[in-house]
């Protein structure tokens, strides 16, 4: 899953990016409202972390433009004040949730995961494909109740495939889920990650199938 962080405090931004990457999220980061608005015109994100007060355009204005374009991506506002007026401003602008600075790492991650679950429309906490399990609360994969030790990009690809289990996911879509704006996207690298994932799933009844020219699909081996 890919997140956008819009925060002008460099130290805080660096801390949040490291925290989110440690949770296996791909993260794009910009430091002002106009840059955020420009990125959101072309990129799609699973969650947007948006500071309320930003240079060049306020977070509230960025959010208002996003909603006018019909983009319903979950938005978590970062605000320095916990006043009633600030909370009302957040929700009036179309935010899904907010967190008051300074915040605890656990609270931030919990709120992000809650937004992701809400966006999933009440899907079961546990998703399965054959004997492969995915916990939507912890975002952990396991095989026969044994956790899979996946690298960040391997996790991102398997997560994208699991969330669209049985459906074809294009290589472009997988690249979008793996690479941030600062990365150099590589279609060949996706093939390498798929190869590694197949090794992880060697003894599983879940398999990743290649549909040439279309993409990849995750399904159980006994599926028709």
Automatic annotation (TrEMBL):
Q: Which residues carry this modification: 4-aspartylphosphate?
A: 51
For this protein, the record's Pfam families field holds: Response_reg, Trans_reg_C
Query: Among its keywords, does the record have Transcription?
Result: yes
GO BP terms in the entry: regulation of DNA-templated transcription
UniProt domain OmpR/PhoB-type: residue ranges = 124-220
The record's Gene Ontology cellular component field reads: cytosol; protein-DNA complex
Q: Which key words are in the record?
A: DNA-binding, Phosphoprotein, Transcription, Transcription regulation, Two-component regulatory system
Annotated Response regulatory domain ranges read 2-116
Q: Which residues cross the membrane?
A: none
InterPro entries in UniProt: CheY-like_superfamily (IPR011006), OmpR/PhoB-type_DNA-bd (IPR001867), Sig_transdc_resp-reg_receiver (IPR001789), WalR-like (IPR039420), WH-like_DNA-bd_sf (IPR036388)
Any single GO molecular-function term of the entry would be:
transcription cis-regulatory region binding
User: What does the record give as the DNA-binding region?
Assistant: 124-220
Q: What is this protein called?
A: Response regulator
Please tell me the species this chain comes from. Answer: Trinickia dinghuensis
């Amino acid at each position: 899953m890919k997140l956008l962080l819009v925060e002008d405090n460099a130290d805080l931004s660096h801390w949040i990016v490291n925290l989110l990457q440690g949770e296996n999220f791909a993260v794009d980061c910009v430091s002002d409202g106009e840059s955020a608005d420009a990125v959101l015109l072309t990129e799609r994100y699973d969650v947007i972390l948006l500071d309320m007060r930003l240079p060049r355009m306020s977070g509230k204005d960025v959010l208002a433009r996003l909603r006018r374009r019909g983009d319903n991506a979950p938005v978590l506002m970062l605000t320095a004040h916990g006043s009633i007026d600030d909370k009302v401003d957040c929700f009036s602008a179309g935010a899904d949730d907010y967190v008051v600075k300074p915040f605890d790492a656990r609270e931030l991650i919990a709120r992000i995961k809650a937004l992701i679950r809400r966006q999933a429309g009440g899907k079961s906490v546990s998703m399965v494909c054959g004997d492969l399990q995915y916990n939507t609360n912890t975002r952990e994969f396991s095989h026969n109740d044994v956790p899979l030790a996946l690298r960040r990009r391997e996790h991102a690809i398997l997560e994208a495939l699991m969330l669209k289990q049985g459906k074809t996911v294009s290589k472009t879509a997988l690249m979008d889920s793996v690479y941030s704006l600062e990365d150099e996207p590589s279609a060949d690298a996706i093939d390498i990650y798929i190869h590694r994932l197949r090794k992880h799933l060697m003894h599983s009844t879940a398999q990743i199938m290649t549909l040439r020219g279309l993409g990849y699909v995750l399904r159980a081996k006994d599926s028709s």
